[in-house]
C-alpha cells in the first residue's frame, strides 16, 4: 500500500511516486464529499498530460491495462473517509494534450481532475455518419452531431401518427421509391440521440420499432453479435461499424469520423 499522505515538492520520477501523488490529490478532492455526500458523484475523469518521456510512468501508475485496479485504490480511499461513492461510479482516464476548462489541474503531477455529478458535467461533443446500406432514404449518407438533439428514423419525412399529430423523421425512407425494404419501416421506428455522460450516440426503438411491431435489430461490429431492442426505454450504445436493421431488410451503418469524441 502506498503512502498517500506524505508530501513532495517536486514532480515524482518513478511509478510509485506518480501513483502516490495521484492518489493523494484524488483523496484531497474526494474529502470535500465526506459524510456520505459522495452518493451524488457519477464518475471521475482523470486527464493525464504527461510528456512522452514520462507517459510510461503514468500508464503503469494508473494500471492502464487493468483500470479496475486503480479504481479499487480510489474506492478504498472513499471507504476510509466515508465518502459514500455509489456502486456504479465510473473512472475514466484519458491521456491527452488538451484538458477541458472545467477540469482542475493537480499539484505535483501532469494531470487534471473532473468529478462528475448530475449537476456538474463536462459538455462533450461528437459527430458521426449514418450510411444507408439497403433500402432507399432521402440521402445515401447523413452526418449527425451532438448538437442535433433527437434524430428520428422512420418511413416518410413527415408522418402522421396517432391523435392526428405529425412526426418529423430526419432520417426518412419515403414510401414512393419502389424499394421493397422501405415498406417494413414504421413511421415512428427509432431514433438516435447524443448521451453526454457517456460521450456517445445512443439508439432507441420507438413505438413502431418494438415487438409486436416492426423490429429494430443491431449487428454489433466488435463481436458480430445480433441483438434486438425490446423496449423504448433501454437504448444501445452505438459503436464503430454497428449495423442497424429496420423492419425486415432495410439496413443502415453507423460510424464515428476519425475518433471524433472531444471533451
From TrEMBL:
InterPro entries: SMAD_FHA_dom_sf. SUPFAM superfamilies: SMAD/FHA domain. This is FHA domain-containing protein. It comes from Mucilaginibacter myungsuensis.
